[in-house]
Amino acid sequence: MSLTLSKKSEQVKPSSTLAITAKAKEMKSQGIDVVGFGAGEPDFNTPQNICDAAIKAIGDGFTKYTPASGTNELKEAVCKKFKEFNGLDYAPNQIVISNGGKHSLTNVFDALLNPGDEVIIPAPYWLSYPEMVKLSDGVPVFITGNKEQNYKVSAAQIEAAVTDKTKALVLNTPSNPTGMVYTREELEAIAEVAVRKDFYVVADEMYEHLIYGDDKHVSIASLNEEIYKRTITCSGLSKSYSMTGWRVGYTGASVEITKRMSAMQSHATSNPNSIAQKAALEALVGPQDAIATMRKEFDARRKYSFERVRNMPHVDCIEPKGAFYVFVDVSKVQDMKYKGEKVESAAKMADILLNEFNVAVIPCADFGFADHIRLSYAISMEQIEKGLNRIEDFLNTLE
Ligand code: PLP
To answer: Looking at the whole model, is its pTM more than 0.90?
Structure first.
């Protein structure tokens, strides 16, 4: 047979986060006591009122196609949330409800990019962005927010990366994998460049409800009319409402971009699951105390994890302000020896931790930072403590 497959599919790497998480799950199923710092998934059950709304939807027979870009009642609820939480005015014809945040982002890149269009992606980045951009025929252009800059990029760095092919910037705040949050001032400077140089901003605000301490979430589109026009605001229910499996994400954008995304979605997937849409509606319009309860618990885990990690030998980390990750600099570990052999890389460190210490961590080469690992603290305090003890045991053996 001489049939070939697409060049596009050949280029795309499978998600290493999902691969490590799957391996840890497999070890667990074999009865091995693995602590999984890998998955970017809250360990809480979806709040009961949300589950009940889904059960009611089934009972009511709400089990048929809905409009392809989502029900009007859910779009209205999203608009209300955009207005009240983000200070953003979107009308229902500016909203697309999709099958999770990933699907929303895929729609956005498909709507924006022509072959060869460049998308600026600040590293460290969530590993799916470059692959999504490539799938939409775009070219990822990386700039780096190093540790001294709290892993954030400046407006000047973005400006220096702009070429006549620049179509968009991806801006993720709070950030996966760093847990950093952009301030209003930083966003104002970035918005000024985006407007002056005229490119789109894909604002991924998936972790907007998970900010701790004094920091506040600011949506870049809320800063002024010009940046609003150029921004596609992306969010979803997965992380804030512990609804990862339900698959509901959404975008707020110009009417024109929204029309195009809706049309593409109508051919690709049709509507997101009708029952999940009813659940999402309850999540947005029902009582919000579950968010606060989860955030409080995440905050306690964050403080504990950060204090522990920063007092461990050979590693370093900056206090995360949002999301549920601790981003750990392991550059010194790479030069040290474990059982007489150089550790060499964060990837090898992750292998040793999984295979010999039963702890799953994410090495961050695919996040643009090969000498860092990511720990997700979306697991119980007891698991966090056990896992961190094991990591510390490993670090204490290094020579
Ligand atoms: N954006 C960021 C930064 C994420 O970390 C994730 C999930 O890990 C998503 C978007 C996608 O979320 P969803 O599970 O709704 O597809």
So the answer is: yes
